[in-house]
């Protein structure tokens, strides 16, 4: 069982998953915070959350709060 993740970690986990599955570059989503984003520690403003959700073509609520369940493929 996994320890409960914080909202920032869930957000970046979801962003990275969608980014990889939709072939979107990290540089299209963040400006200079690529290491922190990849480490799932970058702080982010709510306005930018909406912008990233729009780029990824997903609901902004889902990207923040709905943890993607690991599968054998993405574990």
Structural features, described:
- This protein is mostly helical and 75 residues long.
- It has a single domain, classed as Orthogonal Bundle (434 Repressor (Amino-terminal Domain)).
- It contains four helices and no strands.
- The protein is globular.
In short:
With 75 residues, the protein is an all-alpha fold. The protein has four helices and no strands.
Quaternary organization:
single chain
- What is the CATH topology assignment? 434 Repressor (Amino-terminal Domain)
Strand content: under 5%
Low-confidence stretches: none
Note the overall shape. Answer: globular
Radius of gyration: 12 Å
Tally of helical runs: 4
Please count the beta strands (DSSP E, at least 2 residues each). Answer: 0
Which helices and strands occur, and which strands form pairs?
Blueprint: H1 7-21, H2 34-38, H3 46-56, H4 60-65
Offer a few descriptive terms:
75 residues; mainly alpha; 434 Repressor (Amino-terminal Domain); globular
